[in-house]
Amino acid sequence: MQQLTQTGQNIVNNISSRYNLSSDAVVHMLIAVQNGAGSMAQFNCPELGGSGQWMRGGMTMVGDMFNHGLKMTVDNLCNELSNALANNQIFPPPPPAGSPGSNHWWPADLGQPFSSGAQNNTRYAVFPGRLAIEMNGAITVYDTLDNNISGVSQQQGGDNSLTFSSQYGTIAVSSLPLISGPGLAPAPNTNFAEPPPPVAEVPAAQSQPQTTYNAPGVDAEMSNVGTNSNTNNSPDAIIGLIERLAKMRDAGAITDDEFNAKKVELLSRI
Which helix or strand (DSSP H or E) is residue 31 part of? Predict the structure, then answer.
């Protein structure tokens, strides 16, 4: 479990008791709120209905979409954790660089990481909006955009490509915007269990632009919520449409990226 200060541990124990949650669940939500800079959170907590989202002063979404009691619990919990983070030293500061036992290898201006780890010859640390990677002594810093990073892992095999897990799935670290450092080699798009098939070179003049397949029925589903209809723009109508789009995603009719883009568009109408 994430190391806490004594104050942080007391706060976690108190909240755990009052909300009837395990300490691990409270720490999980605490880290999610901290990753969202205290104003939002992406989480996956079985004790709170699985995956969900929270935004301060905005909409709270949980796995059981119509469980309003659970939504209120998550909203109250996240608000309380946000206030605790703003007013207390919850996580211990890292030891000064160069001191005995220090693992502070990242650039000092990044401050305190939300999480850090190491695998083989690679170390990583996650900060608000930044991801620092040290590989073979070279440090690279990336812009994490709107990704809520929950872990970094190294690909199996001979390459040194890295991926991370976020609310959008598994993503190659090399796809993030480079802030500083040498960067990493692009992650190969292969099945680890099978060797990649040979790729024939195609002259530039003969190459064709890729087209995106739009699943039948997606635009029709979107048209069910009109921009000028107060009834169809109600929260219940939009949540219902999100559920239908989720079923289409689960059936393979649309991709995760298409689903997330449509969901964001729909939520912005509320």
Answer: helix 23-35
